[in-house]
Design goal:
heterodimer; A: alpha/beta; Aspartate Aminotransferase, domain 1; Aspartate Aminotransferase, domain 2; seven-stranded mixed β-sheet; 13 helices; globular; B: globular; binds pyridoxal-5'-phosphate
Chain lengths: 419, 165
């Protein structure tokens, strides 16, 4: 028995109907691509169906019973998310389309900001070399548009942030530090609080990409030192089409609106408008209502299992997987080699077999992994590789599935005659 | 593993493909050339840099050389190798016809019967057409070739018959 596994693993697996399906040739599904998107428990599916079957109406603007029910369901979801990430206030939770939109909302409104948050020539934005493209490109666009400078933390050979010049990299010119909490490629868990402390010393704001952290770590937005924090619904057992931006009231109130339209206004005249308070200021148009309901059910589900327990499970599976992968000849794991400092995503290479081909052979055995650059091309370039294969686990992953992966990789080597 | 899944895998990874992957033909970047293009598959990051050298012969424009440098999976590497075998020495008209035949095969979702007379080793890619995620791999260098050749044809001054002697 591996220590740290969820004691009710078999019960949890029963909550996820897709895990029971079979693939071509009757193969059972071994889903090891949860960092890409997670599977959904029945309660999330049911919550969305129930909403659509019984409570569907637009929110905030429908003056009838269904409208009231839909609005209440939508705002309930905001409460659930606020409690999931320990937000000091529910009004600080903004629904977006996904994590990418949340990060773009921040980078765009910062481009339009005046006063303290304004960014211009001579100012610096700091990111890291292990970011997902969603936390690189918006900052490139911002700094290019404003004549500011983009800088970044490099990586050490074992896949951690190189903090040796922390104090030089984050300096009086730094206006924004934006970094991922957990790397989707290297798996590394970053010391966000330590970096945030330095950023706050110099008056910079801290943006945390929690797309990979929210699914597997207990999140406390204040403790981690974030001023803004983004995650995406579909990786926390919720639906696609919804993401979350949390921001401290102080920062959100200073930022100008993002998209203009319905819901985000206080009053509109033909010559000018005034805006609603947070969170509605940032939620123009009809929001993803059924998706919010699904996300609310999802974070409630995770909270009921307990995020400490989910984290322990991920670490146990990751440790077991690292041991298993080490038995495959010619296999190199990218990123930290100890489970304690990483999340549940392991990217690796196999000598002589391209990641696409690895994924293809595994797929023929019902094993789903990701192959490619995982939207982290600079991090791959840092390690001199063009692409990699990635297995990623979640709260429903079993040791037997890791065994199937390891066996599949040994088979892959023999299929391509490299061993 | 069930045999059905294994058959699919073997249909994809024909021996011919694995042979070309292990021993690619015409690999490397060579002079002379009139156009060089760089194509990437944005989903997986596979890349090819490809050069074409066209010359004017008595029968029209001829593909005298296709040279390349590439990184990618077995399918994309093998298809580049096969491409060069098929088009080098052909007239551009013939090369574009072969290109079209290969494209039709790849986009046929496994319903197109490959023509061995035209595609030679290229018929081994018939199985790839059943794997939508891999079609882009197989087409990467073919699209690069079409692009590069079209660039030269659009700018005839770039093609220099003297240089090829
Ligand atoms: C670290 C990280 N940031 C951002 C994203 C973007 O999430 P989404 O595609 O849902 O916007 C992802 C997921 O792909 C991720 O892993």
């Amino acid at each position: 028995m591996i220590e740290g596994l969820l004691p009710e693993l078999e019960v949890i697996r029963k909550d996820f109907p897709i895990l029971e399906r079979t693939l071509a040739g009757g193969q059972p599904l071994v889903y090891l691509d949860s960092a890409n998107t997670s599977q959904k428990p029945q309660c999330v599916i049911d919550a969305m169906v129930d909403h659509l079957e019984r409570h569907n109406a637009n929110v905030a603007r429908a003056m009838h019973q269904l409208g009231a029910e839909a609005s209440e369901a939508f705002e309930d979801a905001r409460d659930k998310v606020a409690s999931f990430i320990k937000a000091p206030s529910r009004d600080e939770v903004i629904f977006t389309k996904n994590a990418s939109e949340a990060l773009n909302l921040v980078a765009n409104t910062l481009a339009w900001a005046t006063g303290d948050l304004a960014i211009g020539p001579g100012d610096e934005v700091v990111i890291t070399e292990m970011e997902h493209h969603s936390n690189i490109v918006p900052w490139q666009l911002l700094t290019e548009r404003k004549g500011a400078t983009l800088r970044w933390f490099g990586l050490t050979d074992d896949g951690r942030l190189d903090l040796s010049d922390l104090d030089r990299l984050i300096n009086e010119r730094t206006k924004v530090v934006s970094l991922t909490w957990v790397s989707n490629m290297l798996g590394t868990i970053n010391p966000v609080a330590e970096i945030a402390r330095r950023a706050h010393e110099v008056g910079a704001i801290v943006v945390v990409d929690a797309a990979q952290a929210a699914p597997q770590l207990p999140v406390d937005v204040t403790e981690v030192g974030a001023d803004l924090l983004a995650f995406t619904g579909h990786k926390v057992v919720g639906p696609t089409g919804i993401g979350v931006l949390w921001g401290s009231r102080r920062v959100l109130e200073q930022l100008p609106p993002f998209l203009g339209g319905g819901e985000m206004i206080e009053t509109v005249r033909m010559d000018r408008s005034t805006y609603a308070g947070i969170p509605h200021k940032f939620e123009a148009g009809t929001p993803p209502i059924a998706e919010a309901v699904g996300l609310g059910a999802a974070v409630d589900y995770l909270a009921a299992v307990g995020m400490e327990a989910v984290h322990a499970h991920e670490q146990a599976i990751t440790g077991y997987a690292l041991e298993g992968l080490a038995t495959v000849p010619g296999l190199t794991v990218l990123g930290p080699q100890d489970a304690a400092s990483r999340g549940g995503a392991i990217s690796f290479e196999i000598d002589g077999v391209h990641p696409h081909d690895v994924a293809q052979v595994l797929d023929s055995r019902g094993i789903a992994v990701r192959a490619g650059h995982h939207c982290a091309k600079p991090a791959h370039a840092r390690f001199g590789v063009q692409s990699s294969s990635r297995m990623s686990s979640y709260l429903y992953t079993t040791p037997a599935e890791i065994d199937a992966l390891v066996e599949g990789l040994l088979y892959t080597r023999s299929y391509f005659k490299v061993g | 593993m069930t045999s059905a899944a294994n058959q699919d895998l073997d249909a994809l990874y024909q021996e011919i493909i694995l042979d070309h992957y292990k021993n690619p033909h015409h690999k490397g970047l060579r002079d002379p050339f009139e156009a060089e293009v760089h194509h990437v598959n944005p989903t997986c990051g596979d890349e090819v840099t490809l050069r074409v050298h066209l010359t004017e012969g008595p029968e029209g424009t001829v593909v005298s050389d296709v040279s390349y440098d590439s990184v990618g999976c077995s399918i994309s590497q093998a298809s580049t190798s096969v491409l060069t075998d098929l088009v080098i020495g052909k007239s551009t008209d013939e090369a574009f016809e072969i290109h079209q035949t290969f494209l039709t095969l790849m986009q046929g979702k496994g319903t197109v019967e490959p023509d061995e007379d035209v595609l030679e080793d290229g018929i081994a890619f018939a199985g790839v057409a059943k794997f939508p995620a891999r079609v882009k791999c197989a087409l990467l260098s073919w699209m690069a070739f079409k692009d590069a050749a079209a660039q030269v044809l659009a700018d005839p001054n770039a093609s220099n018959p003297e240089e090829s002697k």
